[in-house]
Amino acid sequence: MHTQEIFPFSLIRCLAVSSLALLLAAGTGLAQTGPVNFALLVGAGFLCDVGDSSACPAVVKSADGSSYELSGVGTLSTQSKSVTAAGTFTHKSPNGNTLEVGIWVATEFVSFNFYGLAPGALLHSGTPLGPDQFGPRRMPMMGSPIAAGGLAVLRIRLLPRSGFPRNATLQVNCALGKVPDEHPEEGISLSFEKGDAEFEEKVSGRALFLVDRFAAGAPAKGPAPAANPNPAPAEGQQ
Questions:
Q1: Residue 154 to residues 76, 111, 191: CA-CA distances in angstroms?
Q2: Residue 113's CB: how many other CB atoms inside 10 A?
Q3: DSSP 3-state assignment of 17?
Q4: Least packed by Cβ within 10 Å: which of 65, 76, 211, 232?
Q5: DSSP-assigned letter for residue 211
Q6: 3-state SS, residue 225
Q7: Has residue 131 been placed in a domain?
Q8: What is the pLDDT at residue 196?
Q9: Domain membership of residue 166 as a residue range
Q10: For 229, how many CA atoms within 13 A lie in the half-sphere containing its CB?
């Protein structure tokens, strides 16, 4: 029992630290439509540190009432179309009985629709950027990550503690920025291969994308003009 409880927490904490460290170390150069590198949190990390029990994990239901609870972290790049993400899951029956538990890993980046930056999101929500694993507790400052909204579509593989692995498509929606009408709700949805049940009813859970604040706010700079080796003489100069 203790191993089952400690393992997911250790996994989430380790991945969260690694994801934000890589994001800040690598920077997030700007593309024509916005940043290209993002850290991803789903019902994990400091999202859970707000005194709101509905924030973690992210919960989604199918039409028959069965549900999946997911937590996870990672990084994704729209430039290289790559993703590194993982987390834990719990599958429950309609009456709440646990059917299986395990971990999930991202196997493929499908798409990312960027909604825009939300510089005041963490401040307005009162969420401190930094439980102990992210450094000192403080409000966001220059150089620290900034919230962003978007919809990420990923292929994932679920690995239960017993039973067979399953492949699915995971959609993570963070409703910040210019949110499209068709995706107003924050949360996740999950659809499995081979015509299995789809889990589309978002029940609870927070999701967030982060980019480096300094890189996101830095204007793009073009090359400096080349110096003229033969400047024209000043007017009146003999």
A1: 10, 7, 11
A2: 14
A3: helix
A4: 232
A5: E
A6: coil
A7: yes
A8: 74
A9: 2-217
A10: 0
Domains: count for the chain: 1
DSSP line for 25-94: HH---EETTEESEEEEEES-GGGG-SS-TTSSSEEEEETTS-EEEEEEEEEEETTTTEEEEEEEEEEE-T
- The DSSP secondary-structure symbol of 193 reads S
Residue 223 lies in a domain: no
At 58-86, the pLDDT tens digits run 999 999 999 999 999 999 999 999 999 99
Q: How far is the C-alpha of 87 from the C-alpha of 74, rounded, in Å?
A: 9
Higher per-residue confidence, 24 vs 184: 184
Residues constituting the chain: 238
In a domain, 155, yes or no: yes
- Tokens at 167, concatenated: 């492949």
**Cα 226-228-233 angle, rounded to 5 deg:** 155
Mean pLDDT of 106-121: 94
Whether 234 maps to a domain, the answer reads no
